[in-house]
Design brief:
The structure holds 2 protein chains of 2 kinds. Chain A is an alpha/beta fold. Chain A has helices spanning 7-10, 14-35, 37-45, 67-72, 106-122, 142-153, 165-174, 184-196, 217-227, 340-349, 384-402; strands at residues 86-91, 101-105, 130-133, 156-159, 179-182, 207-211, 230-237, 242-248, 255-257, 262-267, 280-287, 298-307, 319-320, 325-326, 331-333, 336-338, 356-363, 366-374, 407-411, 418-419, 422-423, 426-428. Chain A is globular and about 75 Å long. The mean pLDDT of chain A is 92. By secondary structure, chain B is of the alpha+beta class. Chain B has 2 domains: 3-69, VC0802-like (2-Layer Sandwich), CATH 3.30.2130; 70-140, VC0802-like (2-Layer Sandwich). Chain B has helices at residues 16-26, 52-61, 82-92, 120-129, and strands spanning 3-11, 31-38, 42-49, 66-77, 99-102, 110-116. Chain B has a 6-stranded antiparallel β-sheet with strand order 2-3-1-4-6-5. The chains are: A alpha/beta, B alpha+beta. The A-B interface holds A 375-377, 380-384, 387-388, 409-415 and B 5, 7, 9-11, 16, 37-39, 41-44, 46, 63-67, 69, 98, 116.
């Protein structure tokens, strides 16, 4: 039997959803106009005033917001409520120059946790469950989001955070965890560890909610088989709150977007034109209920497809496919956003040639990141120890910039392939 | 009295070493000693050749990265304890050896070792004081 956290909302008819969206959008536009000079300037640039936005139909008149806007406005430029009304910040996994800090009022936290609660109940969660949250806790939204959702459902919540496999498995066995929340690659790793230690019969997991990075259908099957669970996808981004913007139901055929909180559009990433339902394009979100950090027409850069086909789970909210790629050069490695430009910055700072290549792969269901760097006369020495020390310094600088480990491979000069005079910067070997 | 060694950056991939030896043989450069220091991904090829300036300009032209390093060639009696005696002298003088390797076919009864230390001239003098001969480049066919 399908379970819902907020059945009336999740199964509301289209007219009702549209009525909510119309009313909330108009109110949200007025809210940012009144409180965020940055938005007002952007709207005025287009000759718009709040009166021009009367319904969702008018949404396409509004200018887009991009990650660059968020960077320009860092830290307070898009804040729509006084700081005294805010109770929390979360931040993106990124990184110098690209960091996004999102603010939340208590109301914003409540709605975010509601969204996560919907995801947990869609995965079969009830107050009888033991919800094992192995997303990172802290600035990353994964841990806090699912933690809050788990409380709302009434599960016994294990705030495990990531890492320390022994402890993860011990709690999983001793406390009988039934729902696992983490990144799919960590789930695959834990599944492997459970298998290796012969613990399969001692665990009680029945479902997993895995997100924050791309994963394939094959990976889903693999995790499901190894753990004997159903594995559900969840989508979100710090900019719009965190995980729970969209989540999978029992059908596992796409993620329902919480349309009472977010309006989704698909656009042509090159022209910005809104595309009809069923088209593949860039996903754009407008948050219509957030108070502190509302985003209008935020370009996610994720490429996907939306469908309003009736879902047998009974939910009426639009479904999005798994993201099929990016419309910019951002890579998501181990759930962390990586831009090639960040790697380039580090190389130049350390005096290496800017000719490099990034190789991303997935080994045993875990992402790997390797940076190929051409050796230069300035860095070469007859002393192997000196070269290894320089290599270590580069690895440390990359770690400081990216937040994750990147292997450095020193290669012969001019050995990195160039096509049409321009180097191929990124080779993504992952089959997702 | 030091010898000029060529140190070349070598990526650990098939054919790198063959490329270098091929280029040198084509240009009639004779190798007198060779040694490789390596990590999993890359290494340093150390060469003593008959014509170091010629070899280095050929390799540079081909896009290799290299550096010239002064090293000391030492004549070691080809008998048990021969090397040990030399190392004992160096050790007592508290000189660090960065690396060492041997040279191809020497005259009867003598082996030749190449030593890399921070102060090559200092080592030459130390060995001379202890009655141990260092080898001039010419003795190795280096000109």
């Amino acid at each position: 039997m399908e379970r819902y956290y907020q059945k009336e909302i999740e199964t509301a008819d289209r007219e009702q959803i549209l009525a909510w969206q119309n009313e909330r959008l108009v109110r949200q536009v007025r809210h940012v106009w009144d409180n965020v000079p940055y938005y007002r300037a952007k709207m005025e640039e287009k000759g718009l005033s709040p009166e021009d936005i009367k319904s969702v139909e008018d949404l396409r008149k509004l200018p887009f917001l991009t990650k660059d806007d968020l960077r320009d406005a860092y830290p307070y430029g898009l804040l729509a409520r006084p700081l005294k009304d805010c109770v929390r910040i979360q931040s993106t996994s990124g990184t110098t120059g690209r960091r996004v800090v999102a603010f939340y009022t208590q109301h914003d936290i409540d709605l975010w946790e509601d969204c996560c609660a919907r995801a947990i109940m869609a995965a079969g969660g009830t107050e009888e469950d033991v919800c094992h949250v192995s997303y990172g806790y802290g600035l990353f939204t994964g841990g806090p989001g699912l933690n809050g959702g788990s409380h709302k459902v009434g599960c016994l919540t294990l705030p495990m955070s990531s890492g320390n496999t022994d402890r993860q498995l011990q709690f999983m066995v001793d406390l009988g965890s039934t729902i696992l929340c983490c990144t799919p690659s960590y789930a695959a790793f834990l599944a492997e560890s459970i298998h290796e230690r012969g613990l399969r019969d001692k665990i009680k997991l029945k479902a997993g909610i895995f997100g924050a990075e791309a994963w394939s259908e094959e990976m889903r099957q693999d995790i499901q088989n190894k753990l004997g669970i159903k594995a559900y996808d969840i989508y979100g981004l710090t900019e719009t709150s965190g995980p729970g913007v969209a989540f999978e139901c029992s059908q596992q055929t796409g993620m329902h977007i919480n349309e009472d909180h977010f309006i989704a559009e698909i656009i042509d990433p090159d022209t910005g034109e809104v595309l009809p339902e069923g088209s593949k394009g860039e996903l754009v979100f407008t948050s219509i209920t957030k108070e502190a950090f509302p985003l209008l027409r935020y370009r996610t850069r994720d490429i996907c497809v939306l469908t309003r086909e009736k879902c047998s789970c009974g939910r009426t909210h639009v479904k999005m496919s798994k993201p099929m790629g990016r419309s910019d050069d951002m890579l998501i490695v181990k759930g962390v956003n990586v831009f090639p430009s960040q790697i380039e910055t580090v190389l130049l700072e350390q005096g290496y040639p800017a000719n490099y290549q990034i190789i991303v792969d997935r080994v045993n269901n875990s992402d790997t990141l390797e940076v190929m760097v051409e050796m230069s006369p300035e860095h070469f020495s007859d002393n192997l120890g000196e070269i290894t020390n320089m290599e270590k310094a580069l690895v440390a600088a990359l770690k400081a910039m990216l937040g994750i480990y990147a292997k450095v491979r020193l290669v012969a000069p001019k050995s990195i392939a160039r096509s049409e005079g321009k180097a191929v910067r990124v080779i993504d070997k992952r089959k997702i | 009295m030091t010898i000029s060694q060529i140190s070349v950056f070598l990526e650990n991939k098939a054919g790198q070493l063959a490329d270098i030896t091929g280029i040198l043989s084509e240009k009639q450069v004779n190798m007198r000693a060779i040694s490789i220091a390596e990590t999993a991904d890359y290494g340093i090829l150390r060469l003593i050749v008959d014509d170091a300036p010629k070899a280095s300009s050929i390799l540079l032209e081909q896009g290799f990265i290299l550096t010239m390093t002064p090293v000391v060639g030492v004549e070691v009696p080809d008998t048990p304890g021969g090397l040990s005696k030399v190392l004992g002298i160096i050790s007592r003088a508290r000189i660090d050896i960065e690396y060492m390797y041997s040279v191809f076919g020497q005259k009867d009864g003598q082996a030749c070792m190449i030593f890399r230390v921070a102060d090559a001239d200092g080592l030459t003098a130390l060995l001379a004081e202890n009655g141990i001969a260092t080898i001039a480049g010419e003795d190795l066919g280096v000109h």
